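Troubleshooting log. The previous structure file for this entry was overwritten by mistake, so regenerating from the original sequence record. Sequence copied from the archived sheet and checked twice against the printout by T.R.
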Amino acid sequence: MNRHAMEKLHAWMEERGFPHFTVLRPENFAWLTGGGDNTVVAGEGVAWLEVVEGKVKLHTSRIEEGRLVAEEVTGIDEVVAYPWYAVPEPGRPSDLEHDLTPLRLALSPEEQERFRALGRDAAQALGEVVRAARPQWTERELAGEVAAALYARGIQPVVLLVAGEERIFKWRHPLPKDRPLGRLFMAVICGRREGLIANLTRLRSFGHPEAEGLYNKVLLVEAAALDATRPGATLGEVLSAIQGAYRAIGRPEAFEEHHQGGIAGYRPREVLATPGDGTRLDVGMAVAWNPSLPGAKAEDTFLITRDGLENLTFDPNWPTVEVEGRRRPDLLLS
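Regenerated output below.
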């Protein structure tokens, strides 16, 4: 179990006078158990935790009981197993009624270490496949190779987007299709392991005439976002900096064409930044900004530390370019 998370939840329960609380949502299950997975179908829990009197009970069917105890959770005080045909509804109050997101945002040192390992592996998996790709590959072929590289490292792609030359200028969320990659393509992943999710995007150009100019503009917008990301700043303030950067590159309309990212963690975005959002950033939080233009996007996952931003999805094998004093992934040119 995640002692840091349990302490936060117990304090939260005491404030509200809850003698017991039920945790079902996969992101909260992973948070409390230190990375356990209560899903079989993605996004749907097959088990829940009952927190009562300082103890934790695991409720599930007899189908899942042995596997969960052996592979997904440790430190459980009691297991309650039901016939597969008679699993009751989880008790109340629960995280289906009460949002625990604020409790998850500041990551413990142990969670930060897990995130570092995940980010490194996710970036290397995506990087090695994008470097191997060829213009005649289809988007679906690239997506399949990326998925295989991720799963080989124990990472589940909860989001996997690919756009080749025909579609990268049209759609911000391009589900892979049977279209060739061509001279310019983008691959986007949100990869999940032990509950945490790393977000990153990589682009490659085989001589597309517009690629470098567009990508360099996006990096300038991202630089404004990263400069504004510091302890005490609000998400709304970072978003204002992003909006100003779009104006500065002469593309103010792009702010309206796609969300810009936000706080990362146990969901691709724990809190999506919106105008005027008062959520304050703090040490131990992770962020993933994703400024974009038709034909270009920049995205990595960063940890906010006392010494600045740490790039969790840095790939030492990917070419970099310096932007406002930071090493950022470059557009891969071929």
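The CA atoms of residues 7 and 54 lie 10 Å apart. Archived copy saved in two places this time.
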